[in-house]
Predict the structure.
Amino acid sequence: MIEEYLNKVIEGDCLEVLKGFPDKSFDLLLTDPPYAIELNGGGSIKKKIDYRRGSLLGIGSNPSFTLIPFLEVVRPKLKRFHAYIWMSKDTLPETLNWILKNKFMWNILVWSKTNPVPAYNNTYLSDIEYCVFIREKGGCHWTKDLGYETYKKVMVDSVQSIPGHPTPKPMWMMEKLIKVSSKPGDIILEPYTGSGTTCIAAKNLGRNFVGIEINPEYVELARARLRQDILL
Ligand SMILES: C[S@@+](CC[C@H](N)C(=O)[O-])C[C@H]1O[C@@H](n2cnc3c(N)ncnc32)[C@H](O)[C@@H]1O
């Protein structure tokens, strides 16, 4: 039964842990997986690549990460396919192909960063992260009347910083998505918990959550934030 896992952060590989949950357990998937970023290259951009490779691997990321195996594992665990998935532009094509194949409805929201790292040679700034919203037709919750600002797809904020995790998301963004697409008592799934931002946002709003995180240090950080041992 899913009840025994409610409002907990479970340590493990989500692709394995998810298989143990009963089907149709969750109302909403709100997740922030490791980003696939193209790391091939050399010459003048080598420094940047080496830096990125180090920082990505440091957060348990995999430069060749692909989302589709995860989508197939998580799909039966949702009551209906209803999800917000953060990603870099490199993961967009495979995700959109998968959505179209399944005839789901979709939209793209963005986090516009006010303080991105400076760009290197001949590239635009990395000042946008994408959040793909996916839902099956019918039966997915939508909260009306939260005010005009809430339904804007461009969300503007600075890059966040907390001790202990390199890529925390802004709390208010996760809260906004949860408010729009769930109701109190719903069960939110975050299989790539990191420092626990989504789980805390769910708790703040009277929703249930289940978090999964592979890195034991981040599991402890998320649990401490949830206990409010550290007010981050
Ligand atoms: C982009 S971060 C999430 C950050 C989070 N949104 C926050 O605000 O702190 C992705 C997280 O997924 C974790 N991770 C990577 N592969 C995983 C897997 N197979 N199962 C569970 N967690 C995984 C990483 O350790 C990392 O903490």
In short: The chain has one domain: 2-227. Residues 133 and 201 are 18 Å apart (CA to CA).
